[in-house]
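Below is a filled-in request sheet from our internal design queue. Each sheet records the structural input a requester submitted and the sequence that came back. We keep these sheets so that new team members can see what a complete request looks like end to end.

REQUESTER: design group, bay 2
PRIORITY: normal
MODE: inverse folding
CHAIN LENGTH: 482
BACKBONE (tokenized):
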């Protein structure tokens, strides 16, 4: 998917000056006439030309600017857009579609890979459920949004990762931009005494609230730890040590309990890999633990209901509040959302209510006994807060099976690459991608963010990295044909 090689940059010299002048004129006119859509025209043309000349650099630029993109929402059309990242993603998707119509070439090896097949199945089922959706237009928007995330960030990124430099820069580009957003967030937070109450919004406008911010911090945390302590130059130790310090402070001050738990889960998986514990033994242990918890559920429920520690500025109390299902409003509201989603699933078990429709449809499925002081019937509080229960309500049982198939495909791929990859640097990158995905899908028990560019870049990009390394390992010397 690389563009044709050029001897000189199309933004250099006189052409670059003309672009700058033209952009300035159009922007000035759009501001003077208050027709702001006009300003997007030269920007869109610039993105198309950039994609034609160097799609790889455009995608890497996208990775870098995503943490600093700003989310805007038009209440009249119920459309939330992260600018400029989603505009670029949509443009790249259109560019790739036009390229396909021109040459008819598709990345067949990627499409036939289990991860690629899982993604296609998810997209296919999302598309089919538009026909049965309670709100077809909403579901169509959700489907299109998923396409413009997946096509550039997974299918195109697999090709981008042919370059060693692209692989090496993927995580640092996002991480250092995230560090900038984190410094800004902590500065604003300091104006309010680092209180827990203000921690939910101080990261705005870069992240819409603290849970998605905590997700990104947790995803990059294994990478930051690895880069801070690996063998490297003194300058690199200082730079990545500073990065680790910033992300550590940020993840603590985010007050995001799910992010803390997901980092612990990633540490557990790292121990599993580090000491070469059999994956079968690990799964057997998880199954045994699950059966044990199910058999003793009455005792655990009594323990949880006796816990009245609520989330607060005190970190010890905030951690203890994770299991409070009696008085903590945040925990109780999640249970309310989950129970509503399960009732929606019972009403439409096969096709669900349509992708993206949960927040508009769940109100009648709430029970007054489960509602909290933060419950709403207006559809203003978001989704089902689960990467697993949400698809169950919106797309029926096939939606959940699609998620499970993707998880199986991406994690088996990740473990295989880590076991077989002969290049140490790529093996370490695969480990960072896998541990990041562990944090995300652990976090996904309590939240879901795949409709956000902040998460999509990390999740689909990491999956693309694992798939590239897997395909390269299966056919040595043929990476260029992936």
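RETURNED SEQUENCE:
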């Amino acid at each position: 998917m690389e563009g044709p090689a050029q001897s000189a940059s199309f933004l250099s010299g006189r052409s670059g000056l003309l672009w700058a002048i033209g952009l300035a004129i159009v922007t000035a006119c759009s501001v003077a006439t208050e027709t702001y859509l006009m300003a997007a025209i030269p920007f869109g043309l610039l993105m198309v030309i950039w994609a034609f000349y160097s799609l790889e650099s455009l995608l890497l630029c996208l990775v870098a600017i995503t943490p600093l993109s700003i989310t805007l929402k038009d209440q009249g059309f119920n459309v939330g857009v992260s600018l400029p990242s989603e505009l670029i993603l949509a443009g790249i998707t259109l560019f790739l579609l036009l390229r396909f119509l021109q040459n008819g070439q598709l990345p067949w090896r990627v499409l036939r890979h289990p991860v690629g097949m899982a993604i296609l199945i998810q997209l296919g089922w999302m598309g089919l459920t538009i026909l049965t959706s309670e709100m077809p237009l909403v579901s169509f928007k959700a489907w299109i949004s998923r396409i413009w995330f997946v096509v550039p960030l997974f299918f195109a990124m697999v090709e981008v990762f042919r370059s060693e430099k692209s692989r090496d820069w993927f995580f640092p580009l996002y991480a250092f931009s995230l560090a900038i957003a984190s410094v800004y967030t902590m500065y604003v937070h300091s104006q309010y005494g680092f209180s827990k109450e203000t921690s939910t919004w101080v990261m705005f406008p870069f992240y819409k609230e603290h849970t998605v911010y905590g997700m990104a911090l947790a995803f990059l945390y294994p990478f930051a730890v690895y880069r801070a302590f690996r063998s490297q130059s003194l300058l690199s130790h200082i730079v990545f040590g500073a990065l680790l310090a910033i992300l550590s402070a940020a993840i603590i001050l985010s007050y995001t309990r799910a992010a803390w738990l997901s980092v612990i889960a990633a540490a557990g998986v790292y121990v599993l890999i580090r000491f070469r514990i059999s994956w079968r033994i690990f799964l057997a242990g998880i199954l045994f633990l699950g059966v044990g918890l199910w058999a003793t559920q009455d005792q655990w429920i009594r323990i949880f209901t006796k816990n009245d520690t609520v989330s607060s500025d005190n970190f010890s109390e905030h951690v203890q509040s994770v299991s409070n299902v009696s008085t903590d409003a945040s925990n109780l509201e999640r249970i309310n959302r989950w129970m509503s989603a399960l009732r929606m699933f019972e009403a439409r078990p096969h096709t669900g209510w349509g992708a993206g429709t949960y927040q508009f449809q769940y109100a009648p499925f709430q029970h007054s006994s489960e509602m909290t002081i933060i419950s709403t019937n207006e559809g203003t509080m978001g989704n089902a807060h689960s990467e697993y229960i949400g698809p169950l309500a919106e797309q029926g049982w096939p939606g959940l099976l699609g998620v499970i198939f993707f998880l199986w495909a991406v994690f088996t791929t990740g473990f295989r690459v880590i076991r077989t990859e002969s290049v140490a640097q790529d093996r370490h990158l695969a480990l960072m991608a896998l541990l990041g995905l562990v944090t995300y899908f652990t976090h996904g028990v309590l939240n879901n963010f795949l409709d956000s560019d902040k998460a999509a870049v990390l999740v689909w990009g990491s999956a693309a990295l694992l798939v590239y390394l897997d395909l390269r390992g299966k056919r040595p010397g043929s990476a260029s044909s992936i």
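SHEET NOTES:
- Residues 1-12, 477-482 have pLDDT under 50 and may be disordered.
- The chain has 18 helices and two strands.
FILED BY: M.R.
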